[in-house]
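Consider the following assembly input.
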Amino acid sequence: MGVTKTEIYNDEQNRLASLLKVLGHPARIAILQYIINQKACICNDLVEELGLAQATISQHLKELKSLGIIQGSIDGKSVCYCIDEKVWKEFQEDFNTFFNQEVKVNQCC
Amino acid sequence: MGVTKTEIYNDEQNRLASLLKVLGHPARIAILQYIINQKACICNDLVEELGLAQATISQHLKELKSLGIIQGSIDGKSVCYCIDEKVWKEFQEDFNTFFNQEVKVNQCC
DNA sequence: TATTTATATCGCAATATTACGATATTAAAT
DNA sequence: ATTTAATATCGTAATATTGCGATATAAATA
């Protein structure tokens, strides 16, 4: 046990849940907000900004990268991260499809 | 370690991350979709529908309830769950605020 | 070349999550 | 009153996540 049974859900459910899961950590929300607000790439200003160890920030960045929502480009000895607009927009659509669907009034509650 | 350092983030970041985290599991996505599609309350049709043990479904329902996004009302010996529209709409706004913000083009990537 | 700086990765400890069987609880049906 | 059915809760095993120090790597600088 302790293993999510992904095989019993459909692809859409698994995909959406994965996205939400990665975003479901305040450090990763903070990182995304920071990148968006800087309107530019950043390196590890995040270590100072957030107050987490460099290894920890790097790990969170890796997860965001693996999702595709950010991408990094090497710039000398530092790495600049930025939002991948294409992926960001895909995510917007996924979320909007799910959350902005109409919820009907129910009988019982 | 193993503990998220919530004290270093602001309330908005922690709140949004909590919401996303709860929704970041395919069983909970499937449960929400099922409730929405039935356009009515459900009981543990979910056990048969999803193929998870009754205890597991009950646990997922509890998490969704604690978020406030669903509510249950007792109906004889079963419990009917439904979306709490007010909370659902609050979440829609939170998500829209975050995800539908404009992301500017960056310099480096 | 040696040093410094920025980042990534490894390994590990602490903690959290997932899933489920067993058991409790409560209401309906017999 | 007993049985049945639906749900919740407890306890626990398996696994995942978080965070960090130590170390590796690679580029810039002295």
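Residues 1-5, 43-44, 47, 54-55, 57-59, 61-62, 72, 74, 76-79 of chain B lie near DNA strand D (CB under 10 Å from a C1'). Ask yourself how this observation constrains the way the partners meet.
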